Amino acid sequence: MEEWPSLRVEEWSPTRDTLHMWAQVVGKVRLAQAPMVNHWWQVPLYVSARGLTTSAIPYGTRVFDIEFDLCDHLLRIRAGDGRARDIGLEAMPVAVFYTETMNALHELGLDVRIMPRPTEVEPAIPFAEDYQHCSYDPGQAHLFWLQLVQAHRVLSEFRSYFIGKVSPVHLFWGAMDLACTRFSGRTAPKHPGGAPNVGDWVMVEGYTHELSSCGFFPGGGEEGAFYSYAYPEPEGYADFPVRPQAAYYSTDLGEFVLPYEAARTARDPGQAVLDFLQDTYAAAADLGHWDRESLEDDPNRRAHPH
Asked: 0.90 cut: is pTM over it?
């Protein structure tokens, strides 16, 4: 197994876009059932040992979870009473996937109602009418999961150095990006919104506090890209020196970008990504005058007590 696999966006975009819509269906099931958490942290998916999972979702006094098994290529729906349903992941329209998923939930006594159209994309084709997205290459989906495994590992290490308010490492299915967000502790100006097919109030909730956010997106480079941005962006942010040499600030995106292929081919890919994450965070924290002394720590201090 190649630890940092090569997966060209132009080659797997049909599978990527279909998987994105399938993830929106599953993510909206979690959104419909989970109690609200700040910044919408109750809605993402998580990298698992076999793919992507919702983790446990409440349903009254019951519980269930849903996992994209990207090794055996199954959507696994497991209820807390021991019953389960599997749906084979293969080339099929979003409309078919949506119908089969909702039917499987109903068979398990889980009658969940969701908003049946995608968000943060344009056009937003209702799930029941989407016969456009219908591709699935198992090998490509598996390689994407392997990319996420490496990104999750490095982001989790980066997260461990911060003892202030910090999000989990989680995959937001709206834009299909794996993200981790650090907060300064101060409130932020009201976000202007503007994301496609999502209410501005949704974005306002996500950006109530000053932050530095980073992650991995399966786009933005020939093989995807790591990214980092600050909200609000402090003066001089775009000109802050950032490692490695391949990293740059995209004025179109309003964020720093490190192409995945540049990290993958580095002498030490994990360290290259960590350097990028640390430098872009420092840009936000130093220029934004964060209290770094009280927000950061070395986790090894507790892992190896005297």
From this structure: yes
In this structure, which long-range contacts are made by residues 218-222, counting pairs with CB atoms below 8 Å and at least 24 apart in sequence? 218/9, 218/16, 218/144, 218/147, 218/176, 218/177, 219/9, 220/250, 220/253, 220/257, 220/259, 221/9, 221/257, 221/259, 221/260, 221/261, 221/262, 222/8, 222/9, 222/10, 222/259, 222/260, 222/261
| pLDDT for res 304 | 62
Rounded to 5 degrees, what are φ and ψ at 141?
-60, -40
Instruction: Enter the DSSP assignment of 127.
Output: G
| 36 burial level (CB within 10 Å; 0-12, 13-18, 19+) | exposed
- The tokens describing 3, both together, are 């630890």
Angle, in degrees to the nearest 10, between helices 138-159 and 9-33: 70
**Rounded-to-integer distance, Cα 92 and Cα 245, Å:** 41
The tokens of 239 are what? 């000109």
Tokens of 45: 């998916």
* Alpha helices, H only, the chain: 9-33, 94-107, 138-159, 200-206, 260-264, 269-287, 292-295, 300-303
Q: How many CB atoms within 10 Å of residue 245?
A: 9
Q: Is 77 helix (H, G, I), strand (E, B) or coil?
A: strand
pLDDT single digits (tens) 59-110: 999 999 999 999 999 999 999 999 999 999 999 999 999 999 999 999 999 9
Determine the Cα–Cα distance for residues 180 and 166; give it in Å rounded to an integer.
7
Q: Tokens for 268, please give them.
A: 């030490």
Residue in this structure with the two tokens 């056009």, named with its chain if needed = 123
CA–CA dist 100, 104 (Å, integer): 6
- The answer to whether 45 touches 171, Cβ cutoff 8 Å, is yes
Instruction: State pLDDT tens for residues 177-234.
Output: 999 999 999 999 999 999 999 999 999 999 999 999 999 999 988 999 999 999 999 9
